[in-house]
Amino acid sequence: MNRVDFVQTMNEYDRNMVEELKTLRENIEVEEARLDEQQQQYAQMEEELSAKKKELNAKAEETSTDLNVLSDKIQKLKEEKAAEEAAAAAKAAQEAAAKAAQEAAAKKAAENAASAGNNNTSSGSKPTGGYVYPSNTGKLNPTVGVVYFNGHRETYYSQKVLPGHGLKIPGRHVASDGTIRDANGNLCLASSDYPKGTVVETSLGTGVVYDSGCASGTIDIYTDW
């Protein structure tokens, strides 16, 4: 009986072991399938990450190129602005020098007129230049180099100092009073406050703006003085 019980016990143990092994094998197969699936997912993720990395690298290179182009454009704009400022400064210096030369010439002319005993009359005087200079009170002339008229300051600049070859003055000629006039007899003016072509009344009559470069609030009358 004991032997029979022992055999039965062993058989039952064997059956249990077989069931456990079967269950374990099934679990191993399930785990292997899960691991295979995960491995495939990891491989796919690695491919996607690699593609994303290439895309990001391409965008980084493109951005770097764009930044270089932008930097070059900014540098070019800075250089152009510096060149414009330098040209403006040179022009201002040239105009200042021309203005100084003009004022010196006017002073010299006034000294020459005074030394020659030039007596002004209400109708004007006729100096050695052959021009009858305006001499009424408030009229601009080589002796009176600055007057104030109609809310602006009037001075003059000479074509002997600034020939003004680039000025487009139709019918340009020198009038009997030594002023430069156009075909209609209008005075030729320079102003920084009015655009070219503007008609302006001056102490010497009607004028038209043909030039610029003088100080704001000032009208320069073009002359041969």
Sketch the major β-sheet.
Answer: 6 strands, mixed
- Mean model confidence by pLDDT: 83
Give me the side-by-side strand order of the main sheet. 1-2-8-5-7-6
Number of helices: 1
Element order: H for helix, E for strand: HEEEEEEEE
Structural class: alpha/beta
How would you characterize the overall build of this protein?
By secondary structure, the protein is an alpha/beta fold. The protein is built from one helix and eight strands; from the N terminus they run αββββββββ. It has one helix at 2-115; strands at residues 147-149, 152-158, 173-174, 180-181, 187-190, 199-202, 205-211, 218-223. It is rod-shaped, with a radius of gyration of 49 Å. The relative contact order is 0.08. Residues 116-128 have low confidence and may be disordered.
Helix and strand topology:
Blueprint: H1 2-115, E1 147-149, E2 152-158, E3 173-174, E4 180-181, E5 187-190, E6 199-202, E7 205-211, E8 218-223
Parallel strand pairs: 2-8, 5-7
Antiparallel strand pairs: 1-2, 3-4, 5-8, 6-7
